[in-house]
Design a protein that fits this description.
Structural class: mainly alpha
Mean pLDDT: 92
Low-confidence stretches: none
Number of helices: 20
Shape: globular
Radius of gyration: 25 Å
Helix content: over 70%
Length: about 425
Amino acid sequence: MSFLLEGFLQDLKIEEQNLKDFLDDYRSLNKAIGSSEKDYDQILTGYGTQELKFTIGFLTNILKNIQKKGYQVIDSVFDSIEHSGNFDLSVFFGNRIIERFSSDQQEDLLIRIYTLRRVLNALLILDDRINYLKYLIYFTDQVRVFYQNFSAFIKENYRNATDFYQFMYIYALKIHSDEEKALGYLIKGYNLKKFMIEEEILSYPEENNIFQIINIVGSYLQIEDSFLSLILDIDDYIKEFVRQIKDLKEYSLKKPSVLTPYLQNPFKKYINQFLTNIYILGFEQEYKEVVNTLPDVVSKDHRLIIKINEILLKENFKEKKLKEIKKEIEIAFNNFSIEKKESVLYVFYNAYISVFKENKDEIKKLKDEIKNNIKKLKNPVSLNVPLFRIMNILGEKEKALNLANETKQKALITGKKFLANAVNDYIQLEF
């Protein structure tokens, strides 16, 4: 038995009971606030006759296809179900598949495990936390049973282990709100996948650790003041990311389609966030290597954010260049989502205030502009940061401090710890 799989088995036994205990407490809390559990088996009751006939016919064909071809068609089945974006239906169909293939035989166990993976992903998208916990407990039980009965199936057991740690990472981060524990799960999953790549259990570079590394670096930034961050060598993960991106690019010369997922959302968005993070951390060389290797992955909003930071931190004639880039931002905004506008404006306004803080006329004009954009963008909490900085510069210290503390609380409630830390920094530096 691999020591990695032995550790996985021990974690399974411990976490299965922990999850059950947590679910009981979580259910009690939700009942106390009048929240009920969603029953996905009732979703067809609202369907019309024709829609109901089509859905039942589709389900019948799916079950026949799985019966004929086994667990290997599960992912393509759910791709078809989710094509229209109806993730509730994924859970309903998942339940029917689990009911139909319910034996302890190897094939049925794998069908259930593959199905549970997709149901958990659907529940994550639906943000249904109680049902996510319920199905995670079931998934944990099924992968434990599979390992105990079919330990010789190394590849499947390793894959089950990496998925278990990924699902536990999501649970720890989104439901349990334990960022250090979440990072621990990420690292365990990363090490398992790294071992699988090294042992050629997985076909590298099509299978890689790129997104595990993105999550590890993001988590590191959230807990950079903790003990765990002190013993984590983030440099190695970032260098490994650059190596894997280069290997993927080289492999794409033989198989161009391998890059497609990385150049489309949501993966493209994650990579751009990672690039922002490593730039902030000071890994400029690694940043440039990724951008030069995959220029098509870099979004317009990301380029603007980096350009603003470079003006602020490195260039001369900052006042002139910030005014010039403002025109560029206004043009780009014609094709930007609200989320992208908010992230660019947050960086731009804070840079502008740092450069023009002695110019009261510019600061007064900027205050009105920020207020207008807060209304247009439906009150994004991040834009309160440049607003309270301006209020403080203009002598409204008490109001500014109240807004800063309010912003910090909203950021913490919504899980934006990085923003909350930024508010803390500005309070210490400027008030």
